[in-house]
Every structure is written in structure tokens, then in C-alpha cells.
Request: fold
Amino acid sequence: MKNFSNCVKIILHRQFFSTVILLAITSYSASATVSFQPYKLPASSDTIKISFTGDIMQHGGQIEAALAMGDGLNYVYDNAFKYMTAKFKEADLMVANMEMTVGTKPYSGYPNFSAPVEIAKAAKESGIGLFLMANNHIADKGEIGLKNTFAYYESIGEPTTGVYKSKKEEIEQDPVIFTIKGVKFAFVNFTYDTNGMPVPDPYYVNLMDSTEVKKIIARARDKNADIIIACPHWGEEYHLEPSAEQEQWAKMLFREGVRVIVGSHPHVPEEGYIYMEPDPGPEIAGNVSQSGSVNKMVFYSMGNYISNQSDPAYTQVGTLLQLTFIKDNFTGKISIAMPKWEYTWCFRSGEFLQDYTVVPIEDFINSEDYTNGAVTPKQKVAFSKMAHTYRFIKEKHLIKIEDE
Reply:
């Protein structure tokens, strides 16, 4: 049986050309009132790709499976990112919400998350270059949890944002800014709560306080950020649609100058909205701009990347979102191309491999691992559930494109 990972290059090659045709047709039909005017990027342009995935979680079952993979001696996460690493590394910067603390024993899952450091090490090695820390579980283990988490992230040289060792540090370091090919990207990360767990002094967690968030955005402008990206941990769990509060917050963030919003927390993919500018936009790598370039966009929730959740079924669905920014080196103008997105599926222990793994659904369905890989009754049920749930999510058309 040909291995799934050996099929990826062939599948991606086929899908590239089919995606070009499909997106061109979709772009034409979805906007009847605006002329379709794609054009090739000028030779003077640089492109920057920034990608996001869903929540990285560690429930008790995942921790036990990782220990079993290490024969009871070590925690092994070799399969957690096995089928996604190549896609992650296509980005200039890969971003993910790390919904746990690490390094504090005894390790535990819900409701007080503390995971082995090996999951963070595997995440970094997969290509994730920014850990979002502001979420409702970051204070689960109190002061020692925060101390150990910071210590490990620093030891592996992983950039973080959203949580700080003091308010003074937050003012000095927030927002984190990445300069990529001459373009400055600021990331603003905050959470609705810490589940009522007190944040131990002097640590500081960015909360969903409009006054404080506006201050962070103002600092991003003062530091001449070209693009401001907000990463809120918000919303209602297991809802595919955003709440009224999320929608109001999105409007405020846009008013303050945020161009991109990528949310987390609901543990399922939620709706997203891409708002187009009227000017002609770029055609890049098979992504034909629809009627113009993107002005702003919001993706309310990426869903889960990896977790032990399975009910409702779409808690096993995540999103891989790839954003492309274009800098014209002659004019200095920065444009946003039509983003690409695809859905992922988290197989729990024994549903595909011995432990937990994540696959890109469309690629996997077109592989021999899907055609011939379901041998045990548990695998057959899991494969069927994935296919059924994927159809359900696709039919929802969660991502919508609208003219500004």
C-alpha cells in the first residue's frame, strides 16, 4: 500500500491545476457586479505567506498515548504533525494557539491542562514560528505553570505573544512584530477569560478589554506596523456561527486598523468573511483575486488542530489558513491576495495510526491510505465519520466573499 505521505506531492500537483480552474470560475460567478480583472504580479514584487492552524490541545488521552509511544519512558509526538509539516513549512511564518501549559507535573488534561514539553518541541519542529498564549487555560497551573511554560518556550527560542511576565514587559513587548521581506506584521493576541483562574502576580494575560486592546493596536501603529493581525480567543464553544459579541468586536478591530482577524476557542471551524476592494488585485500561485484585492478579513474560529474531542463530530475538524501579502517594491504598496484554506481532521488513537495524528482531509481522501487504510472496525468507523463530517462542513460554505 502506497503510504499517504508519498502521495502528497502528486496530489498537490493535481490539485494545484484544478484549484486554478475552480477558483477562476468561482471568482467570476461570485461577483456579478464587479469586473473580473486579474493580473500578473510585477517582477518587482515580494510575496509573504503567513499561515494559521487550529487549537493545539492536550487532553488526558493524548498524553497517555504519547507516553505509550515512548514505551512508558518518554513522551513521543512524532505523528502529531507528521502529515502537516510540509504544509506548515510552506509559510514564511506559521502561527498556532497553544491551549495548555507545559512542563509541570503531574501532567493532566481537562479541566487543568499541563502537557509534556515534548508537544511544544514537536510543534516548533513542524514549522510553527509563533505560539499564541492568551487563552482560557493558560493559568490552569498557577504561577508554577506559567513559569515552566515560559522557561521551556525560551529554551527552544520560540516567540510567543499574549502573556507576559509583568505588565511592564507587556507594554514593552506587545504587540510582537515580525519583519518579513521588509513588511512589518504586528500580532495582537487576547482572551475572553482564564476560566476564573487568577493570574498570579506579576504575570500578565491580555484580556478582552476594549480599552487595553486599543492601546496595543495604537502601539502597533506607533511602531509603523504595515499589517495588524488580531488573534482573539473568543466566542461560544461548538457553534459554527459567530456570536453577536464576536461580530461587534470584529467591527471595532477593523475600525482601529486591524486588517486580519483569526480567532480561536470555539473548537470548531466558524464562519469567515473576506471583504474585497474594488481595485484590480493580483493573481498569485493559482489564487485569482476576485474583482480586486482583499481589504480585510475575519475568520472567527480555526477549530481544533489536535485534541481528544469528538462530539460534536466537527470538533475533529480544523482549518489550515494561508494568507498571502504582496509588496510592490517600486511603489511600496502592500496588497492582500485571496487567501487559501483547507480543512484538517484529527484522528484519535487507533482511528488511523496507533496514536493521534492530523491529516489534510482533501489530500487524504485522494490517497491510497484512505482507499485501503481502514482495516479494523474502529478505523472503518473513523474514516466514514471523517468523510461524512467533511461533506457537512463543505456544504455549510463557512467562508464567504463579499464586496466592500
In short: Residues 349 and 355 are 4 Å apart (CA to CA). The domain at 4-403 is CATH 3.60.21 (Purple Acid Phosphatase; chain A, domain 2). The radius of gyration is 21 Å. The first strand starts at residue 39 and ends at 40.
